[in-house]
Design a protein that fits this description.
By secondary structure, this protein is an alpha/beta fold. It is built from 20 helices and 15 strands. It has a 5-stranded mixed β-sheet with strand order 4-3-2-1-10, with helices on one face. A 5-stranded mixed β-sheet has the order 5-6-7-8-9. The model has no long low-confidence stretch (mean pLDDT about 90).
Length: about 550
C-alpha cells in the first residue's frame, strides 16, 4: 500500500488558500497512484482557533472543506487521514475516511500523551498507526518521540506513519513540530523541521504486518519522552538528549519559527541591531539561515551597528567581521549626539553615567530600529535571551521591545554551547573565527564610557551566567525551596562558589526575577521552543509581589 504524505505550508486562519493547497496535494496523490493520503491536523487553519474556538460557524466552514476533500478521495478509492473541528470546544478530532480496515487494522492518535500513555492498548492489536497531531513541542522532543516510536514498533510490530503539523503554522506562543516519515521494525525514516521540504519523500510503501499481542512487560513510555530532573552545570540542556542534537534542533526551531513568521506576513526584510556580542551574534546566524531556507535575497537583511557612549572597539570590530564573513553590509548610525540631546532635554547633564544615561542609549537604538523597520517594510528582530529575561536585565521600552524575538527561550550558557556546534557547520565556516572571538569576550551592556575597551562586565555586576541559569532551572523546572537551591548549587559546581556567595546571588536573583515580571508581561512575540521558557501565565510571578516568600526560606 502506498501512503501519500501531504506537504504544504499552511497560512494561519486562511481556510480558502489552505484548501486549494490540500486539493493540489490530493491531485498529486491521485497522479502517483497512492492508496492513502495523510493530512496534518489543523492544516486548513494553521493555528488553534483561540477566541474563535466556541464559534460553530468556523467549525462548520472547516468541516465542510474536509468533506469536499473526502468526497474527492472517495471518487478515486483513496482513504483519507485527516481531522475535523469539534463544534463545542474547537479541538481537532482525527478521523479516517473511506476506511481500509479490510486491509489493515489502523488507528489515528490525537496527541503524544494519548499514544505514549497508552501504547500497549493502542498498539497491541493495531498494525498501522497514523500520527498527524497538531502538537506543540520544544527542542529535544523530536529525539525522544522518535526513540520511543522505534522501541514501540520493535516491541509490538506496529508501523507508524507520521505527518504532523507545523509548516507555515503560527509560531507564537506554541511551536508546532513537523515530523514526516515512517517508523517500523525498530527503525526510523523520519524527516524533521522546515528544510525537510527539500528532500522528504512524497509517499511511503507499507506492507501488512502482524502485530504482537503483548500484555506483559508494559512500558511507561510517558516517562521515556519526558525530560528528567538533572542538576548539572548546564541543566537547561536535557540529560536524556544528545547535546549536539539538542543544540542543532533548538537552532532549527529558532529558524523555522522566524521563517514561518516572515512567510505568513509576506515579509522579505529584517532589521537587526548587531552589537558584536553573544545575543546579536546568535540572532544574526538565525537570520542568515532563515533567509537561506526561504530563498530570500540577503539584501533584505538590514544590519546596523549603533555606537553610543559605551561601545567598545572590540565589539564594533567583531560586528564588522561577522558581516564581512557573510557578505553583508553593516551600516552605522552613531547615536551619541541623539542620546546627549535627549538627556539635556529632560534636564540631565548628559554626562553622569547613571541609569538614565544608560537606558537612553538602549531606547534610542530600539527607536531607530523600529523606525527603520517601518521605513523598510521589515521585521525588527529581538535578541534578548532567557537569562536576561528572567532577571529583567533589559531596558523597558528599549532592548526589551522587538517585532519578534528569536532568543527568548535560549539561555546564555545554552547559547554558548550551541555556537560551539554551529561554527562547525559548513554554512558558518565563513564566520567561525569571528564567532569564536565573540565567545572569548565578556558579556557587557556597554553603556558607560571607557576609553575604547570593555569596562562593564555583566557577570561581575550580577553573577556568573552558569549560576544564574542554574537558578532559573531550579525556579522554573524543579521548583525546590530556596535553601535547597543553595546546597544543590554548591554541590553541582564542586565548591567553586562558597555557600555565602551562592546565597547572596540567589537573593539577588529572586529580587530581580520578581521585579522583572512587568517586562516579561509585555515581551515581544516569540516561539515557545524550550522546556524552560518563561512564556505564559503559569510561569509568571505577580508583578507587584513580595520576594519575602523566597528570602525568608533562605
Amino acid at each position: 500500500m502506498k501512503i501519500y504524505i501531504a506537504q504544504f505550508s499552511s497560512k494561519p486562519m486562511d481556510i480558502t488558500a489552505n484548501f486549494e493547497k490540500a486539493l493540489a496535494a490530493m491531485d498529486s496523490c491521485i497522479e502517483k497512484g497512492c492508496d492513502v493520503i495523510v493530512y496534518p491536523a489543523g492544516c486548513l487553519l494553521g493555528a488553534q482557533l483561540g477566541i474563535l474556538k466556541d464559534t460553530d460557524w468556523v467549525a462548520c466552514t472547516y468541516n465542510s472543506k474536509i468533506d469536499e476533500l473526502c468526497k474527492k478521495a472517495a471518487e478515486h478509492d483513496i482513504a483519507v487521514v485527516t481531522d475535523t473541528v469539534d463544534k463545542t470546544d474547537g479541538s481537532f478530532r482525527p478521523v479516517i475516511e473511506n476506511d481500509f480496515a479490510e486491509t489493515f487494522s489502523a488507528s489515528v492518535v490525537q496527541s503524544s500523551k494519548q499514544l505514549f500513555g497508552n501504547a500497549n492498548e493502542i498498539c497491541s492489536n493495531t498494525d498501522l498507526v497514523f500520527i498527524n497531531w497538531m502538537e506543540s513541542g520544544v527542542a529535544g522532543q523530536k529525539y525522544l518521540w522518535t526513540e520511543a516510536l522505534k522501541d514501540i514498533s520493535a516491541k509490538y510490530g506496529t508501523v507508524f506513519v507520521l505527518n504532523t503539523a507545523g509548516d507555515g503554522y503560527t509560531t507564537h506562543p506554541d511551536f508546532y513540530m513537523t515530523m514526516r516519515g515512517i517508523v517500523k521494525d525498530g527503525k526510523a525514516d523520519v524527516y524533521y523541521g522546515f528544510d525537510h521540504l527539500d528532500y522528504c519523500p512524497e509517499f511511503f510503501e507499507v506492507e501488512k504486518n502482524t502485530p504482537t499481542n503483548t500484555t506483559a512487560d508494559i512500558t511507561d513510555y510517558s516517562k521515556m519522552v519526558s525530560f528528567p530532573v538533572c542538576y548539572s552545570q548546564n541543566p537547561l540542556i536535557p540529560g536524556n538528549v544528545p547535546e549536539k542534537f539538542y543544540c542543532l534542533d533548538l537552532f532549527s526551531m529558532q529558524c523555522e519559527s522566524l521563517a514561518n513568521r516572515l512567510h505568513n506576513i509576506n515579509c522579505k526584510n529584517i532589521v537587526l541591531n548587531l552589537s558584536g556580542g553573544l545575543d546579536s551574534t546568535m540572532a544574526l546566524l538565525v537570520c542568515v539561515n532563515t533567509f537561506k531556507m526561504l530563498g530570500l535575497d540577503k539584501k533584505g537583511m538590514h544590519i546596523y551597528t549603533m555606537p553610543g557612549f559605551g561601545t567598545s572597539s572590540t565589539t564594533k570590530g567583531l560586528a564588522n567581521d561577522l558581516c564581512d564573513g557573510f557578505g553583508l553590509e553593516l551600516k552605522t548610525i552613531d547615536i551619541t549626539e541623539t542620546c546627549r540631546a535627549a538627556l539635556l532635554s529632560i534636564g540631565h547633564d548628559g554626562a553622569t553615567p547613571d541609569v538614565t544615561f544608560e537606558n537612553v542609549q538602549a531606547r534610542t537604538r530600539t527607536m531607530n530600529a523600529l523606525n527603520l523597520a517601518n521605513h523598510l517594510n521589515a521585521l525588527m528582530i529581538g535578541t534578548g535571551d532567557l537569562s536576561e529575561i528572567a532577571l529583567g536585565f533589559s531596558t523597558f521600552g528599549g532592548d526589551q521591545i522587538a517585532s519578534y524575538n528569536v532568543n527568548s527561550c535560549v539561555s546564555k550558557t545554552v547559547m554558548r554551547t550551541m555556537l560551539g556546534y554551529l561554527v562547525e557547520l559548513e554554512m558558518f565556516s565563513c564566520v567561525k573565527e569571528a564567532v569564536n572571538n565573540v565567545l572569548t569576550i565578556p558579556v557587557s551592556p556597554e553603556l558607560v564610557p571607557h576609553g575604547g575597551e570593555i569596562l562593564q562586565k555583566t557577570e561581575d555586576i550580577l553573577a556568573p551566567y552558569k549560576l544564574i541559569d542554574f537558578f532559573i532551572y531550579c525556579t522554573v523546572i524543579t521548583k525546590i525551596q530556596p535553601a535547597e537551591v543553595v546546597s544543590r548549587a554548591y554541590d553541582t559546581f564542586n565548591g567553586e562558589f562558597s555557600r555565602e556567595y551562592i546565597c547572596e546571588k540567589l537573593k539577588m536573583f529572586y529580587r530581580k526575577f520578581a521585579v522583572g515580571q512587568f517586562k516579561r508581561s509585555c515581551a515581544p512575540e516569540c516561539a515557545d521552543i524550550t522546556h524552560v521558557s518563561l512564556i505564559g501565565s503559569n510561569r509568571s510571578f505577580a508583578s507587584d509581589g513580595s520576594t519575602d516568600i523566597f528570602l525568608q526560606n533562605l
